[in-house]
């Protein structure tokens, strides 16, 4: 555990988090930790001789032994006088990491900054296999090889451009009309892409559950693929998850088997961008999420949604937190949380 990277006896003014022009934040503590995971012992693997640093003599590497694997990484910023009653946890989507919420690809501050300024203690995490959570050997621990997302898939799947609108030459790419995504920064966004595995869901869920158990009660704001994990963590710890905001979530548990009675006290909000109807994949996703949300409401829970075009906000991509109007969307989420009594 690497907690308390920076602790101050008194409040620490951190203007560099948000830029020189903005008023400073009064930060009490910043730190990070790993949570979850397990110990694995490997044996019977052949040793190798490797040169670890140019010019250094070769060193024999024995890959056998004990390893800590499948933990989650989290970094937090706690304010001196938060306005929110509970910390806000930002969970990323597939093939990405906590950078999703930090600084936007065009260099503007991200949602982490917005919610700190709104008065929340904020935690940003990298799930199992992502970013600073790191990898493990495969197939000995991770059971398959990773797969990698080409830029064309991200451009189209994330509804920045229509089908077959991507080109290697940025000048030839065709974005959807009126897109809010900063298309000039798309290649910068693509540098955030992280390999992912299709065989680690159980380990990822276990780490997220351990994370919630450690730091909550809390509010979870989750994006895309992360939604399924958040819904399951809320089911396991309904007293600890005080609200759940599903931002363009692409997955959720089976509503026919999910015990909605356990999460009746967890208000949930779904947030959707624009152009869902242009893509059959997203139409199916949205329909599945509506079935889940309606099941929650029928069970007596609170399940609301914001479809941005229906309230006059157009052009948003799948990456709402990176779009040019991301602060406007974050403000809608903040206002909804305030209506739930979670922020002063």
Choose one word for the global shape: globular
Number of strands: 11
Helix content: 10-25%
What's the N-to-C terminus distance? 32 Å
CATH architecture: 3-Layer(aba) Sandwich
Main-sheet strand order equals 1-2-5-7-6-8-9-10-11
CATH homology superfamily name: Alpha/Beta hydrolase fold, catalytic domain
Strand content: 15-25%
**CATH class category name:** Alpha Beta
Which topology does CATH recognise? Rossmann fold
Structural domain count: 1
Number of helical stretches of at least 4 residues: 7
Structural class: alpha/beta
- What is the gyration radius calculated from CA atoms? 21 Å
What is the residue-mean pLDDT, rounded to a whole number? 93
Low-pLDDT segments: 1-20
Return the string of H and E elements. EEEEEEHEHHHEHEEHEH
Characterize the main sheet: 9 strands, mixed
Protein name: Esterase
Keywords: Signal
Organism: Variovorax gossypii
InterPro entries: AB_hydrolase_1 (IPR000073), AB_hydrolase_fold (IPR029058), Carboxylesterase_BioH (IPR050228)
